[in-house]
Design goal:
about 80% helix
Length: about 325
């Protein structure tokens, strides 16, 4: 299977699983979001470590640990994705599934903004218009809520930064995830010990079912992260941005149809503005790729260009007095 197609399928699978995960977290109650996150950090390195040993890539992790730049960026990535997961789990268990979907709808626009601010990319008029509509959607929600939609903005900012970091790291999907979770393992262990000794823990204290679901939370989080990391190194960032729409669509439908969250007219209006912005952003991306493909088809093969360049050089040498 071609690498690009493989990356497309891996990315799509990651976002479908992320979208469906909102059905899992209410099952783990009364365990809270931070305790679930700590369990994820505790159990994920074990599962990922076994996978690394099976794949024979454990040495690559040791190499990453000896490189300060890669280790520092992966540590930052681990902090960002942990903050993202904590906020997402809290939203899923407190009646804010639609707000979570809003955050992931906003993420592509935030990624474009990061491209301008961090990578100094130039935007076309359609991209600026999309950002403007997205800002309008946030303004409408701010007016309706009486404050910023902090759940959506927090999710968009943390995941947008995470994707930016992962795109610029030349590490394998499994190796990167191992380092991301391993660097946070001591903090999760201390937090879990404090909860257990103070009598505030729910893990292992409520029921066998709750305990098994707590252990499973690490694997529920790990699977889509592995798929996303593998996809991010196989397809262009623009394609990853397109695939991001899958997750919030699944979450939005579950929030409205399964969790029956209220959708007043002002929220529909904000989502309409946001969807229009994403449609404009998508259309701009499609036009750009079409023009690039057309230019590539019109360009002569490299060998032909090299031959013409050589012929021109010979001709120029012959004309030199």
């Amino acid at each position: 299977m071609p690498v690009a197609r493989q990356g497309l399928l891996l990315g799509a699978a990651a976002y479908v699983l992320w979208g469906l995960s909102v059905l899992y977290w209410p099952l783990v109650e009364p365990t809270g979001a931070i305790e679930i996150l700590a369990l994820r950090v505790l159990f994920s390195p074990i599962a990922v470590g076994l996978l690394l040993l099976a794949m024979g890539r454990a040495r690559r992790v040791a190499e990453i640990l000896r490189k300060p730049r890669e280790l520092g960026l992966l540590t930052l990535a681990g902090v960002l994705t942990s903050a993202n997961w904590a906020l997402f789990i809290w939203a899923s268990t407190n009646g804010h599934v639609v707000d979570a979907s809003l955050g992931y709808f906003i993420t592509p626009l935030v990624s474009v903004a990061f491209g301008v601010a961090v990578l100094r990319e130039r935007l076309r008029s359609g991209q600026w218009a999309a950002i403007g509509l997205g800002a309008g959607a946030v303004a409408v929600l701010t007016a309706a809520y009486g404050g910023l939609p902090w759940i959506a903005l927090g999710l968009a900012a943390t995941f947008g930064l995470y994707g930016l970091i992962k795109k610029h790291l030349d590490v394998g999907a499994v190796e990167g995830l191992m380092v991301e979770t391993a660097v946070l393992f001591p903090f999760a262990a201390v937090y879990t010990i404090v909860l257990q000794t103070s009598g505030q823990a729910t893990f292992g204290q409520v029921s066998l079912g709750n305990t098994l679901l707590g252990v499973g939370s690490g694997f529920v989080m790990m699977a889509p992260m592995l798929l996303f990391n593998a996809a991010a190194t196989r397809v262009p960032l623009s394609v990853v941005g397109m695939l991001q729409f899958i997750e919030p669509i699944v979450q939005f439908l579950l929030g409205v149809l399964v969790f029956r969250e209220v959708m007043p007219a002002v929220r529909w209006a904000a989502f309409a503005l946001l969807w229009a912005a994403l449609a404009m952003l998508t259309a701009e991306g499609v036009r750009r790729r079409s023009r690039a493909a057309a230019a590539a088809r019109r360009a002569p093969p490299r060998s032909a260009r090299s031959s013409r360049t050589a012929s021109s050089a010979v001709r120029d040498q012959g004309e030199t007095p």
